[in-house]
Write a structure and sequence with these properties.
The protein has 309 residues and is an alpha/beta fold. Helix content is 49%, strand content 20%. The protein has eleven helices and twelve strands. It has helices spanning 3-15, 18-25, 29-43, 59-86, 99-116, 129-138, 174-178, 203-215, 228-238, 251-255, 284-308, and strands at residues 48-49, 56-57, 90-97, 119-126, 143-148, 155-161, 165-169, 195-198, 221-225, 241-245, 259-262, 271-277. The strands form four sheets. A five-stranded mixed sheet has the order 4-3-5-12-6, sandwiched between helices. Strands 10-7-11 form a three-stranded antiparallel sheet. Helix 1 crosses helix 2, helix 1 (3-15) packs across helix 4 and helix 5 packs across helix 11 (284-308).
Length: 309
């Protein structure tokens, strides 16, 4: 049974005659009779008792009608779901983001986004920046929020927030004792201090490795961790150093008297981007997620600036 047959059969059953059904369907009576006869020949059973008027469903016809009604109802439900998707009120957003950025972004963005799009399912993949690009290219995620360089030819990048890279240092570190916080310095100014490393794949680790190679540095590694949150807390409390973005210099760092020194010898090209494949259609809810995120982080940064003043 196909949808056309289901619709025509249901109409015949409702009208009680082929003639009346043909008028309602705007088809010829002979073609409708032929369709019904073809169905009955295929299943080897009569679906209507034609000896009475109006025609009455046989037992097989009752079963056939129930199946036709289920098919038409399922199709109507599917059409409604597809219509909602076309109107972009329903869907799925597979988002890639680092754990640390998720801690910062999701509490600000998710309440606004879910209120606007309650029927969009958000699937979160937590991974470092380099891994997110791989997942994006393979089609495993739809959108990456990551610190990246906008160099991928098959990817689109929308700037969300600029990042300045520097050295986070605990107050007992040599660089903190010898320099005023906020002073731009070269990375070798901390060459005598211990460092906390992020594992490979994090954007800060990529920058760190480039700078250490440039200056021939091989500092003592106090800790290597996959968690930026663990890393910065250890650096501040243990009097060590860590390469990271200024966006992580927050109330915790200031309260624990952590110091931050912008890198004088490094021009950062890895900023926080929303990244997606150029060859993919981007639904409105995905674009709105990017817009909400950009605005939320802009407001948050302005509040932090006012607090410091």
């Amino acid at each position: 049974m196909n949808l056309k047959q289901a619709h025509y059969f249901k109409t015949i059953a409702e009208c009680g005659s082929i003639t009346a059904a043909a008028k309602q369907l705007f088809v010829s009576q002979p073609s409708l009779s032929q369709m019904l006869r073809q169905i009955e020949d295929e299943i080897g059973l009569s679906l209507f008792d034609r000896s009475v008027s109006p025609m009455r469903l046989t037992f097989a016809g009752e079963k056939y009608l129930r199946a036709a009604e289920r098919m038409l109802a399922a199709n109507a439900e599917l059409e409604a779901q597809l219509r909602e998707i076309r109107q972009e009120n329903t869907g799925r957003l597979r988002l890639g983001i680092s754990v640390t950025r998720a801690m910062q972004v999701m509490p600000l963005v998710l309440p606004v986004f879910t209120a606007q799009y309650p029927n969009v399912a958000l699937e979160l993949t937590e991974a470092g920046s380099a891994r997110q690009e791989e997942l994006l290219r393979s089609g495993a995620i739809d959108l990456a929020l990551a610190a990246l360089e906008s160099t991928g030819s098959n990817l689109a990048y929308e700037l969300i927030e600029r990042e300045n890279i520097g050295i986070l240092a605990g107050r007992d570190s040599g660089i903190a004792r010898n320099n005023l916080s906020g002073t731009p310095l070269n990375v070798d100014a901390a060459g005598g201090d211990s460092f906390v490393y992020l594992t490979k794949g994090h954007s800060a680790r990529i920058i760190q490795d480039k700078l250490f190679r440039k200056y021939g540095l091989n500092p003592h590694v106090l800790l290597e961790t996959d968690s930026l949150e663990v890393g910065r807390r250890v650096a501040v409390e243990a009097g060590a150093c860590m390469i990271l973005s200024d966006i992580y210099v927050d109330d915790y760092v200031r309260q624990r008297r952590g110091e931050f020194f912008p890198l004088k010898d490094y021009e950062n090209h890895r900023h926080f981007y929303a990244c997606y494949r150029k060859d993919e259609y981007i639904p409105k809810y995905t674009r709105d997620f990017i817009r909400i995120t950009t605005r939320a982080l802009s407001i948050q940064r302005e509040r932090d600036r006012e607090f410091r003043i």
